[in-house]
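Render this sequence as a predicted structure.
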Amino acid sequence: MILSMTGFGKAVVVFKDKKITAEIKSLNSKQLDLAIRLPQAYREIELELRNMVAKTLERGKADLYIYTEANESSTTATINIEAMAAYKRQLQQLSETLGIPEPQDWLATLLRMPDAIKSDAGSGDVEEGEIEAIKQATTQAVDALIEFRTQEGRRLEQFFKQKIENIRALLNDVAPLEAERIAKIKARILDSLSKLDGVEYDHNRFEQEMIFYIEKLDITEEKLRLRNHLDYFIDTLENGHGQGKKLGFISQEMGREINTLGSKSNHAEMQIIVVKMKDELEQIKEQVLNVM
């Protein structure tokens, strides 16, 4: 089972009067690119958190957010009367100095001022056991992210298998056209020779050159290698996570064989099939970037 690099995880841990929330999201990246944002009071454990997350994620561009808020059941808030009184005196003085009217709704105006409400939660002091609660929230958020990645990995696996089968079916459509293609190429060359008046040629030599030319257009090896790449892609897909780079390399090799088929085809219907193969492969390449 493969894992996607795209995902999201969130966990909430309640510690005394605080609610600690950890959120982590990730996108695709060649290497692990981890950014951590957390309150200043917890900066001392940033490196430890980074090591914890890095061991699990391996690859991807990840952002970890940790924030705290007062637990509603234990929050005690009071109106800061002294601050509001000071704000009112200054506003009255401002109104008198600048000659502007005073607010019609003093209460609404003063409540919008900074520090109008005092709360005893979130004082910034780290209590005993709070660090462990942060680590617990981080671990749970990462576990949720991995579960998300796993679910997305299942979807990607089905997507890849469908696209590989589409390419395999298109490759099978090439076989009936091969004999017709050779006959058309030979007929086209003979028709061109017949239009050259007064030109004589050695028919035996012509047949030898024709055989040599047709051998250069033979696509048996390309078809065989492409089938092998398709099988190898599926085997790698089912081999477990951490195969994203290998799947990318295999898809590049598939592209080379498909391009060679197109350059050797010399047949309109075969070229249409090659274009369809390229379209299916391009969709695979786009999604392989999201695989761990």
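Summary. The longest strand covers residues 60-70. The chain has three domains: 7-74+127-150, 77-119, 153-288.
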